[in-house]
Amino acid sequence: MKYIISTLNPHTHFVTIEFIADKINEDETTVQLPAWRPGRYELGNFAKNVQQWAAFDDKGNALSFQKITKDCWIVQTKGISRLHIKYNYYAFDLNAGSTYLDNTQLYMNPVNCCVYIPERINEKCELHLQLPNNYQVACGLPALNFEDGEIVRSFVATNFHQLADSPFIASPTLQHSEFRLGNNKFHLWFQGECKPDWEKLTTDFMKFCNEQVTMFGKTPFLNYHFLFQILPTRMYHGVEHTDSTVIALGPGYNVMKGDLYDDLLGVSCHELFHAWNIKTIRPIEMQPYDYTKENYSKLGYVCEGITTYYGDYLLLRSGVFNEEQYFQTLTERMQKHIDNFGRFNLSVADSSFDTWLDGYVPGIPNRKTSIYDEGNLLAFCTDIFIRKNSENKYSLDDVMRHLYNEFALKQKGYSERDYKGIVEHYANASFDDIYNKYINKASDYTDLMTQALDYIGCQLILQPSSRFAEHALGLKTHEIGGIAKVLAVFPGSVADNACIAPNDDLLTINHIQIKPDGTGTNFSEWSTYFGNTTQTITIATNSVARQVKLKPKPEQFYKTATIQLQKTITQLQKNNYKLWSKVQS
Description:
Elements: E1 2-6, E2 14-21, E3 28-32, E4 50-56, E5 62-63, E6 65-69, E7 72-76, E8 83-90, E9 100-101, E10 106-108, H1 110-113, E11 125-130, E12 136-139, E13 154-157, H2 160-164, E14 168-171, E15 175-181, E16 184-191, H3 198-216, E17 223-230, E18 235-240, E19 244-250, H4 258-274, H5 300-317, H6 323-339, H7 348-353, H8 355-358, H9 373-389, H10 396-406, H11 416-427, H12 432-439, H13 446-455, E20 458-464, H14 468-473, E21 475-480, E22 483-489, H15 494-497, E23 505-509, E24 512-513, H16 523-530, E25 535-541, E26 544-550, E27 559-565, H17 571-581
Parallel strand pairs: 1-11, 16-17, 17-19
Antiparallel strand pairs: 1-2, 2-8, 3-7, 4-5, 4-8, 6-7, 9-10, 10-14, 11-13, 12-14, 15-16, 18-19, 20-27, 21-22, 22-23, 23-24, 23-25, 25-26
Helix pairs in contact: 3-4, 4-5, 5-6, 5-9, 6-9, 9-11, 9-13, 10-11
């Protein structure tokens, strides 16, 4: 199967694609376009971006075809030996998993826009790019018939799975640097307006990359490519691949400093870990991927939760992040958990299954948990569970190495039972309590986290929120277009009992209009000002206004979490912490 990609009028954002398949010997040939991309557990329905689609023989004669599903065609191929499909694809989204074309670059995730013949999915694929002469190409695929000094325009993939998993950026303005760790070469590619500090980047990336390579002992790649799409506006998004990742960040003027640089390190460490966990170590339901439909699994707390844990934790272990930075990120995960009353309604395992339903939008109030945040907390607790029960002989590292060596490298997917059994093997103890009470049951993790943190001499502190409306009324708000809107309501709180609900508008407080004040709206300030006195608030639900009276109950509702080292710890806790963190003290 061969793909020829051209960009005739890039300002229109339409990529022209010709698909050529030799050795056609059936009267009818099925041609499929993927419906989703791995790394995003929801349907993408990429066929909606196809404007023109036609089929021909090798002499240019049109062939009849019929579309039989939203993204599948049957072409009449009786008597022909070579099939040509010509179509275009609208490429206007610019994020870490999309395809984008303009006058400055062609950025493609082949899984978005490359068709394939299902029964030939394991055959070799060729990718040929028709680009301006001054374009470089950043891609993990090996070059086809490449000689030193040539500008690479053609690539080869072992099969469609590898092609689908190999995004590329083609542009005349790519910035590039690389470094080696043993037999592995790591590439850093930046597209967009930014000024990479190569020395700083190389120093930090070498640390966490080396920590991951050392942890697993083997890599599923020889060359790994970090492809950064740097935008002029705020952006944070990353997508994993076996030998590359695309990371979209912005604004470009902040990429090399402050919180955004920390985000760059965090998402890069996370996505690299995915090269092992989910790209090679996969749930049995995704071995292999089926691109045509949902690939349901309850193991998102492993695929994404463990990866999120290690994405933060390995930055601490490698010395890229200090203890304060790490515990700040862990605190943020815990804060999201205690603010989310979906923890009482849907377990993290069931939430994983339902990512295909509403995994990437807030959804209805208090319905679900997060495979990323709750999964991260469970990974930390599982790591401590193994360390505690094995007297620090084993850890979650050993579980991941086992999954890689005994499942991934043997082309086997793992099941929930497999994962539980491996954890129990290294802990030499039953995992039933965590598995049944927290992974597969909707639960609050406060007690579990408190016990796990204590093992390494840390503590979880819960204090009343600093915002009066949150701790005294049970009301979280945010601003949309200058309007104060209800974001969340604490069940059973003053606000809940007054029938205030998410998405209500807050119009006045004690007859004073709520207005923007430069940093949001002044609702929080006025609510704090009126304090413990009864507050009369005008709210609007679907544009129908009414008044409610709220009598505050200070320090009763929303809490703020803090995770930190205990002031006094035992020698055993010090040893446990040192073995877990690898921080020398």
